[in-house]
Structures are given as structure tokens and as C-alpha cells.
Design a protein that fits this description.
Elements: H1 2-12, H2 20-27, H3 31-42, H4 46-63, H5 68-74, H6 80-91, H7 95-102
Amino acid sequence: MKERIIEIVERNYTNPQFDINSLASEMGFSRIYINTKFNFIMGCSPHEYLEKARINKAKDLLLEENKIIDVCKSSGYSNKKTFYLAFKRQTGNTPKEFVLLNCETCD
């Protein structure tokens, strides 16, 4: 089940509409069942896992010198504010701060 969850999330995390309901539907289980199983198997909530996957992708894209608004869309966020809040929650920095702290070729 863990491998299937990871595969489904990896395939869909860039879709802003993908959420726990989408995961449950694709796996053929109820939202409540998936939420409980997910927490047990993965050690975090589906929302936390999805946010981490999206922000990890965003970090990679930012370090490739992409524009923040493009990174926002490419990593599964349809709203810049939501992206900024999630990024700050996961990394402790804004996207711009992250780039300045981690980009070796930026001046």
C-alpha cells in the first residue's frame, strides 16, 4: 500500500486539485480510511506529505533559477499566497530567501 500511495502522490502532486479525496478515490477507499491508513503507514497526514512533496519540487526548481510564479504553478499551487505560506512553513524561509541562501551562482 505504501508504494501505491507514493506512486499516486508522485504522479499527481503538481495538480493543484489533487488532495486526500483524489487519493482516496484513486485507491478505491473512503477518505477517512485513507487518512487513518496514511498516517499509520507514512507517519504524517496526507496533507503534510503532499505539501512536503510540492515544496521539495519547488526548492529544486528555484535553484534552477526559475521565476517564483512559475515554480508556484509547476509545484502544484494555484495561489501564490498559499505557496509562500507552505514554503515558509516547510523551510523557515520565503522562496526568495531560500534562493539567496542556497543558490551558488546567484549574485
